[in-house]
Structure formats: C-alpha cells, structure tokens
Amino acid sequence: VAHPTTVSPSSFVTPYTPLSTDAEEAATKLKTSDVIKIQLGAQIDGFGAIVCDTVIVGAGEPSAEKEGREADLILATYWANELLLRLMVPSGLLSSGSDEEKKTASATKAPSQTKISSLLEKVAKSYGCNVVESTTSWLFERNEIEGKKKIVLSPAEGVKGE
Fold first, then answer.
1. pLDDT tens by residue, 13-52
2. 146 beta partners
3. What is the pTM of this model?
4. Beta strands of the chain (E only): which ranges?
5. How far is residue 104 from each of residues 12, 85, 92, 107, measured CA to CA in Å?
C-alpha cells in the first residue's frame, strides 16, 4: 500500500486520520455541502502514485451549491492543480508537432521552484486566496514517496527545495 485512502474535511491541510481512541474525532459525520478531499494511493512495482480530488457532499442539490469565499477557494484550487499538471510535464516532452516544434520543446528548461511558486501565487491571488506556506511535493522513487528531490511551494524563510 502506497498511501491510505482518506476522506478529509476541507479544514484539514493534511490527510485526516482520526484515532479510533478519540471518540469525538472518530464519529465525525459529513453533511450536505461539506467540501471534502478524497485521497488514495497505489503502488506498482515499488513506485507509488497518489491522487486526490475535492468533492462537495451532495453536489447537485440546491443546498450544496457554493458561493462567495468557498467557491473562490474551490476554483483557486482547481486552476492551481491544472497549472501544476502542465508544469510537471518533463521539459522536451512533445508527442506531436513538427520537427521544429519538437526541437524547440527539447531545448526548453523545466520551470524552477521559484517560477512555479510565483505562478501558483498569481492563480491563488486572482481568487483572493493564498497558497499554504511550505507545501511540499516530492519526486517519488522506488519504494519511497518522499524522495531526495522536492518542490516547496511558497517556502518559509530558510526553506528550499531541490
């Protein structure tokens, strides 16, 4: 198992895993219109993969519709994830296009951590939100989900990625 499956209320930045010995936490119930994160992982030949999605409980019900700050946060998160997916494609990877386009793509350097953080900050600020300081993404290695290389988004003072 690469990562436990978790269902986390949106107020938790990290996966929500209440202890069964904490009766109040273990009895948490989801309500219509709660914003939750569902995260799960798998491991194939020692390489882990983790996926996560944000879901609104009871989506489609009039009482579950989001407006204002909650809607801004959901949109900021969605577009930040879309941006990250596009930035994480290895530089030079172009499956179609002319030879000239492929040559240009192969000469392109991957964006730096500073550039990635800057672009994500712009997306977040356009919705009046902030990126959580020092959110870290690691390059997975075989049998290791926190490899040596990492990206630290909106790093705190003295924190750096590689």
1. 778 888 888 888 888 888 888 889 998 888 888 888 888 8
2. none
3. 0.75
4. 6-9, 35-44, 47-56, 135-138, 150-153
5. 42, 20, 8, 5
CA gap 147, 7 in Å, rounded: 25
* Phi and psi, residue 43, nearest 5°: -135, 130
| Cα distance between residue 159 and residue 134, in whole Å | 8
Helix or strand (DSSP H, E) at 14: none
Quick one: which of 55, 46, 48, 43 has its CA closest to 6?
A: 55
Token representation of residue 34? 């709660």
Rounded Cα–Cα distance for residues 58 and 37 (Å): 14
Q: What is the CA radius of gyration of the chain?
A: 19
Contact (CB, 8 A) for 133 and 127: no
